Amino acid sequence: MTMPARSVRSKTSADKGHPRIQEMPTRPELSLIKGTGKARRPERGPLAEGARRLIGWTRTRGNPLLRIMTSVIFLAACMFGSLMLRTQMVQDSFEATRVQHEISNLTQDVQDDQNKLDQLQASLPDKAQQLGMQPQQGLNSIDLQGYKPPHDAQGKAGHP
């Protein structure tokens, strides 16, 4: 009880009814119009414009070797700049250490001079006695409450 395979019989040819390749309707391609964006955006400097063009250039698909060479040159420049900055930082560190050492030496010199001055001031009464001077005995004071200037002094000072 096997059944025979089905077959389709048609009197029309395959080329007449439905063509295999249908032509797609053509539509216009979209393209970028340059020069209209500046009216909407504020004016940028030449550095910003160059950076924008560089980013646009890297997004293109052509010239991979040129893009690789540009990135290698950029990385080498960054490495060189980093090396220069590091060298400058080390030089500044040595200079700061030297200046700090000089400051500590000068501070020590000032302290030595202050100690010498204190010793000289302490030996001052002994030297005065060697020269024959006498230290002050007792307390001397002047009372100015009952003071009246002489009449001659007022005339000389310009008072009438």
Walk me through the structure.
This protein has 160 residues and is mostly helical. It is 59% helix and 0% strand. The chain contains five helices and no strands. The protein has helices spanning 14-17, 37-40, 46-58, 64-130, 151-156. The longest helix is centred in the middle third of the chain and has 67 residues, at 64-130. The model has no long low-confidence stretch (mean pLDDT 80).
In terms of topology, how is this protein built?
Elements (H helix, E strand, L loop, with lengths): L13 H4 L19 H4 L5 H13 L5 H67 L20 H6 L4
Count the beta strands: 0
- β content, as a range? under 5%
- Write down the secondary-structure element order: HHHHH
Structural class by secondary-structure content: mainly alpha
Average pLDDT number:
80
Taking the alpha carbons of the first and last residues, their distance comes to: 162 Å
Name the overall outline. Answer: rod-shaped
